Amino acid sequence: MFESLSDRLASTLKDLRGKGRLSDADVDATCREIRLALLEADVALPVVRAFITRIKDRAKGAEVSGALNPAQQVVKIVNEELVGILGGETRRLTYAKTAPTVIMLAGLQGAGKTTLAGKLAAWLRKQGHTPVLVACDLQRPNAVQQLQVVGERAGVPVFAPEPGSGVGDPVDVARRGIVEARARQHDVVIVDTAGRLGIDTELMQQAADIRDAVSPDEILFVVDAMIGQDAVNTATAFQEGVGFTGVVLTKLDGDARGGAALSVREVTGRPILFASTGEKLEDFDVFHPDRMASRILG
Ligand code: GDP
After folding, report:
1. Is residue 147 annotated as involved in ligand binding?
2. What EC number(s) does the entry state (predicted)?
3. CB within 8 Å of 205: residues ≥ 6 apart
4. Binding residue per annotation — 122?
């Protein structure tokens, strides 16, 4: 996903090598290049600005330390600031003190929520949990069926309204799903919700109603890393309309620029918990800011 950003940063930083001392002009030139690379990768402008300011301040004020030459020092600063943008420490899932832990998924249609529900369930199972999926996307044709397929693949049960039962209220399904999960002693409930193609108030209201009905321990905002700058706008809209405790980036295997996804943490202040990198169940992992930064910096 971040190949071209990675290449550009690598070649910019390579230009510094061999310099015994870095003048302020060297730092300015490097920062200009980094700025362009980030903007070209679609990283949101305010995030780029803040990032560059921090790097400039630190690089210009840096004492030449014995162990690192000036170029290495700049690389270290860029790396640390990138880890910071991505959230710093790895943020683990929060579990409820009393089971079940309720995890609600929210995001636009096509973001990858249903796929993620299966991946998360499979991952939780591997960690020794006994998750159940609850199908609250009653809008998209086949969404319930798709979740059932995903659940089967992940080896976890799915709570869904009976076909033709006339149950059409996702809030009611969510509520009953939790009751059912508790009765069957599942320790994690993953609630899949409906998305729309764009932000609309009805969608936000429904998600907010589900949130109020099930009091989730985590609300994960699922966002397609390939939608460019819209990722930031969508995140902001969901934060205002529903609120969320964490972010899941999907489609990081794509070849789009993806920098907007790198901005979501900084813009919303919410940590990225997981990343999806493909359509298969196992194309999924905990998001580690430091590993991602190393990958980007090559
Ligand atoms: P939902 O509408 O949010 O529930 O989205 P879906 O889970 O149905 O996913 C939409 C499409 O994106 C499907 O074709 C998925 O197979 C695909 N998809 C989901 N996650 C990923 C991913 O990480 N990488 C790729 N390449 N495709 C994905």
Report:
1. no
2. 3.6.5.4
3. 241
4. no
